[in-house]
Design a protein that fits this description.
The protein is an alpha+beta fold. It has one domain: Hotdog Thioesterase (Thiol Ester Dehydrase, Chain A, Roll), CATH 3.10.129.10. The protein is about 25% helix and about 40% strand.
């Protein structure tokens, strides 16, 4: 599958929440997707910590883009059906970076592992399963 000329515009059109949150795309390839989210006070919870929901939205968006880029022929899209997040560190400034890689690419599901980092420290580890939409039905 060809990657778009403007990766940020592509993800923002495909997932409008990415534009709302200010998520940008660095890499969009089947083997790796890298998205970024800048810390901003408007995305924080108490104590100036980037809200866990914002971190999860970043990771879910990276995982969804990774799954989409790995869809089998004939599939029309993907949707998250399961996600597990372990938070390991708070983001108090700078950029959160989500790096998603496929672990399993099948005809019915795609499993993606995403690491979120900030200042070279692991912030969160996310495992998600994406269902393949519009593909061949399994019998």
């Amino acid at each position: 599958m060809a990657t778009p000329n403007d990766p940020t515009e592509f993800i923002r059109q495909a997932m409008p929440l990415c534009e709302t949150l200010g998520i940008e795309a660095v890499t969009l390839a089947p083997e790796e997707v890298v998205l970024t989210l800048e810390w901003t006070p408007g995305l924080c919870t108490s104590g100036g910590v980037l809200h866990g929901g914002a971190v999860m939205a970043l990771a879910d968006s990276a995982g969804a883009a990774c799954a989409f880029l790995n869809l089998p022929d004939g599939a029309s899209g993907t949707s998250t059906i399961e996600s597990k997040t372990n938070f390991l560190r708070a983001v108090r400034e700078g950029t959160a970076i989500a790096t998603a890689r496929p672990l399993h690419v099948g005809s019915g599901t795609v499993v993606v592992e995403t690491e979120v980092t900030n200042d070279h420290h692991l912030v969160a580890k996310v495992m998600q399963t994406q269902v393949v939409l519009g593909g061949k039905a399994r019998r």
